[in-house]
Known about the structure:
Blueprint lengths: L5 E3 L11 E3 L2 E5 L6 H11 L3 E3 L3 E2 L14 E2 L2 H9 L3 E7 L2 E6 H9 L3 E5 L2 H11 L3 E7 L3 H11 L4 H15 L7 E4 L3 H16 L8 H10 L3
Parallel strand pairs: 3-9, 3-10, 4-9, 5-6, 10-11
Antiparallel strand pairs: 1-2, 5-8, 7-8
Amino acid sequence: MAEMTQIAARSALDQPAAFKRRGLLFVLSSPSGARKSTISRKLLADDPGLSMSVSATTRPMRPGEEDGKDYHFVDLAQFRQMTADNQFLEWAHVFGHRYGTPRAPVEGMLESGRDILFDIDWQGAQQLYQLAGGDVVRVFILPPSMAELEQRLRGRRTDSDEVIEGRMARAHGEIAHWDGYDYVLVNDDADACFAKVRTILYAERLKRSRQTGLIGFIRKLDREES
Ligand code: ADP
Ligand code: 5GP
């Protein structure tokens, strides 16, 4: 990926407005049903400096989903063409379908000074990390128990029994990748988990390595009369 864009700090919990820092690629992963989408939605509503990366997928649209908002729904031929044209930052097979992160919108959002939220699996987190290393923050969300996970998937009422069984079988495999993440949280209480994710985002924005405006600011302090 191109050199990460320098973005001006914006929220009250960030550094002063003129203080430049590196844009963040904030990855949320979990076994399906751990309520990661619920947390993503709250985070986006809460934070005007954060934009969602909308993935492309070959999986069929679920009731209530919107093309271009939840996903870009494409067929296999279109997905293959996008892959051949190097249009994805990363892509992977998940649950028998293909999912990928379109490159251009991510680069555009970073250029316009926004941090980006990714709802992608461990394969995507791994690929993004290889591309953008220190600019990537990876958060993994665990369900409080497997029984609760199954109940949440059934409660969603958007997948057939067969699909739910497949997702439960895959959940163990996904959880096995917990150690590829910087943070691992248990989502036992939705509000508490959201608060933890938001704290991570705020703290990561303040990391010294992201504060590209820091040296200039310190030189300016040095020049000031005491
Ligand atoms: P994921 O993105 O991890 O697949 P979702 O965010 O779609 O999970 O949530 C899975 C299910 O749990 C959905 O049916 C959602 O409505 C439900 N859910 C989310 N938050 C809560 C909550 N606080 N209490 C009860 N059910 C919830
Ligand atoms: P779902 O079909 O429930 O929307 O998503 C299934 C899984 O695919 C989730 O774990 C989700 O995080 C993952 N996923 C969604 N988009 C992408 C993507 O662009 N790349 C990768 N690697 N995984 C994705």
